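Re: the 394-residue chain
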Amino acid sequence: MHYIDPFYRYDLTLLERTISVAQREAKMNNIALFYAIKANHEPEILEKVRAYNLGIDAVSGEEIKHSLKHGFKPEQIVFAGSGKTYKEIEYALFENIRIIHCESVEEFYLIQNLRKKLNSTTQVALRLNPDFKIDTFDKISTGENTHKFGVTEAESVKLISEYGNEIIGFHVHVGSQIENLEYFKSLSKHIANLLDRFTNYHPAYLNLGGGLSINYKEPKKFPVPDFKGWMSAIRTYLPESKFPTLALEPGRSLVGQCGKLIAQVQYIKERNNCKIALLNAGMSALLRPMLYGAYHKVTTLNASFEFDTYKIAGPSCESTDVFHENYTIEKLFVGDIVEIHSTGAYGSSMQLNYNLKQAIAKKFITQSTQTIIKCTHEKAASSRKKVPNLRTSI
């Protein structure tokens, strides 16, 4: 068969379209956007983000350094993270990034001491934990009082009473992959009511984080998320009359649909009436399904109209290296190429080298290079026709 190595394929045309829609809606709602670089840090992706003048939401010193290396200015970067190290805080302050989102009382005192020592211009906002429950995976929910993130309302009140002049405002992020926009409307009401309890303090900066979902079930039908609905929902109880400028931190919603993981069927086994399709890409390349049961649509490039049901699995030496159980797809044969959709976010950025697997290749395409996959598939399909036993289950 014509063998291909797995790779990530990024549609830069769709990426630009998505970012432009998001930025257009942001300007209409007077919202500043900071791209969550943890979603995808590939230089080619960052080049498009920077071209549209978005800032960066970083959660490590390495992400700050990477952003600066790829052309973002210090004043475009905000820095969150529940366990920032002394070195990371010192580095952020030395570089005079825009804002550090402080997540504990102890961290606040550390930042204050280092700010004075370094004479840094970096400002401080408190990451407020609003104790707000959302409907998403438990593993990516961040805004309840049982989670490790942020400072409590009581801690915030105390810090503001003592250091109000040195705290620019608040950062709030309650989780990811939020599909129901009513949650954002409820969040805006919850935050508005919460802020009303901070007497004699009006934040100059209010960042509501990210969380907007993408459509993993129908990625082709809904390639661009509902940025208009998201931002309108956020503004419901946080109007411009009271908060002239808000900040948001989209990550997944900007880059999720522009990426696909391209893999190839290596073997097909049958076990107790269960067919297992083993791919040459698995948890080392895409961890999300194994980490917290995330769904990614899988399609084949075959022109077949027969369907069958498979366990779709990867090659890692772990039983959990499975994308889907009982997944119905067009009939698969050894050598077939499959596309795993919606992998532009938290795919390549979460890669492992478990089993000493190396990072897989990335291909960045524009409208003029859409034939890459078509040609690759034609080669694979041609070789399948020449080797009859490829249709035999192994």
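Residues 284 and 354 are 6 Å apart (CA to CA).
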